[in-house]
Write a structure and sequence with these properties.
rod-shaped; about 325 residues; 7-stranded mixed β-sheet
Amino acid sequence: MPVDVRFLTASAIEQHGVEDLKSLLDRDDGFAWVDVPRWAAEADRVLGDILGFHPIAVRACQERNHTPSVHGYPEHVFVVLHSPEVRQAGHVHLLELDQFIGRRYLVTVHGPINPAVPLEAALENTRGVLRRVELGRFRPGSPAELSYAIVSAMVRRERALIGAIAKRIALIEHRVMTDRLRNPEPLLEEMFLVRHELITVRTMAAQSCEVYGRMSALAGVLPDEARPWVDDLVDQFDRVKNVGDGEKEFLVGVIDLYQTRVTTKMTVAMERLAVLAAVTLPVTAIASIVGMNVIVNEQTHVVLLSLVLALMAIISGLLLRWTKRQGWW
């Protein structure tokens, strides 16, 4: 896909080609928005040759970064962020968005994505903001404000995902309270997969919060009017992190309850097995001893057999009475 170059003014959004980018940077009636949906040779030329970004930052846009980061340069701030995308249970993909936030431009680069994730999912946040601008519902006055809108969309995505996970946790809790524990493995596996999704989203929010906290501390890089937006993003990410922590603690409590119920059921089963062993062991011993001594007899001794059976019954009854007093059944 080609590099998209747009110029945003107070009243319109203009579509331009890459060859117009240098002249757009000289205009003072708006700012340029350069979006790179997928990395290509043209993107390397635009970021490296035309805009003159640092080679390390350009290389970071080409590679997959597993942690977010922020770097301050004299003319701009380079920030790497991630948003979550769940394609199957327990597997959360990281959708990377790299941004160069300057005073006359905003450059958004969509990092490498997993082949299992469609490109439309990676472009959802920027395309959503673009539609608002095209419809006239949002008129950003600076690159920092446009970046704020895009990142806020990422926060809403994280918040929505945690909300969906919370609904699944509520259903899991109901199943834990009503399950008869005949087949615990599938439910237990589902709980741990949900916890993995929750921890992944919570980690993204916490790391992004640290990144914007660091950005707020960078002196002389961002204009003063951009600091309230940065501080608000810190607050948004922090709130998502806190909500994720609360849901994680609740889910851990549900898992603990389920594991306790399973363990208790196993303990009860072991006690019952112990009762069976205690009752049958003396009976088996008597039968073995008597059997070895009467096997050579030519006929059954009714009196002896009756005494042995009565002794077995008495011992079994006494053992059952003792185990009842012990509370084993």
